[in-house]
Structures are given as C-alpha cells and as structure tokens.
Amino acid sequence: MNLQDQIGALDAGVDQLIQAASAALASRAAVAAAPEPALATALAEPQTPAVAAAPVPEPQAEPAESAEPAVQEAQAPTPTLEVGRPSANEITMTIGGQTVSLHPMQVGQLIEELANARASMQPEPPPAIPQGWRFASTKNPMIAVQKQSNGDRLLVMRHTGHGWVPFVFSPDMIVQMYMMLTQR
Q1: Regarding predicted confidence, which is higher, 23 or 165?
Q2: Contact 115, 162 (CB under 8 A)
Q3: Angstrom distance (rounded) from CA 147 to CA 139
Q4: What residue spans define the domains of the chain?
C-alpha cells in the first residue's frame, strides 16, 4: 500500500471515529443509554493494515418535532481523547464515550498509521529537540541498510516503541553522520 492509500485509509478511519463520537454525543443527548456493544466489540477486534478503523453504524434519525435537540447538539463540546493504561500490555482510548482496548499489535498498527499520516502534515515537527521532550530510547537497535539506485542509503532501525523506522540518507549526509559519530 503506498503512502497515498495509507493516508486515504487513515482519513476514512478518522472520519469514522468522528462520526462515532458525534453519534455517541447525539445518542447521549437524546437517550441516556450505554455505548453500543456492537461498535465497542468491532473496534476492539484486531484490524488489518488496509482497514484503519472499524465500520461505524449510522446515527439514528431524530424526530423532526423540534429544532431544540439539533441546537443542543451543535452547542455540545467536541469529543476529547482519553488514553488509559489498565495493564502493561493494554492501552484504552476513549472518544465521545466510546472506549476501545488496544493490545500490542494494535498499538503498533496505530503508531504506524499515525506516523505515515503525520509525515505528510504541516507544520513539520520542530527542527530542534524541544526542551523537556520525553522519549524512550533503544540502545544498540537492530538495523538494516540498503543501497538505493541513486546512491542514497536506506537505513532502517528497530525502535522498541516505534517499531521499524526508515531513514534515507544522501552520500553527503552519510559523510556528515560518520564525522559526527566518530568525533571525540
């Protein structure tokens, strides 16, 4: 799947999450009911890379007796994202009252999809390391290198949190990197 396909799949998934959050707010405003079990079950199941999000049921039509519920819905606050860590191998994400439990493989898939989408967004990440930035580093990561037809080198490093992270270096950058790594 190329980058454009991945971005399209992620956009569709984001749209579905927004629709799910909107439907949850609408149903909460209309009827104080529990989240739809079918949606929670569908979102909690593992997904393939081509499908970024589970299908979202269509919101139920509201009676056209009064415009007041529509006004209340328009004034409702936007859904917020809440992330929890109930156990070492589980993350929960809640948007608009809908909670999804993600296990390691699903978290990896989400990181990959988000990283691919973020790579095409503006503004780019800051050029310098931000003060107070928190990170998890990987000491002596596994690496793979491939020579490209134009002389560039593809360097792929395995980070324990991000997974396999690819970088492409021009010959000039390789020389600069070598000099930085070998200076005392």
Answers
A1: 165
A2: yes
A3: 24
A4: 3-118, 143-182
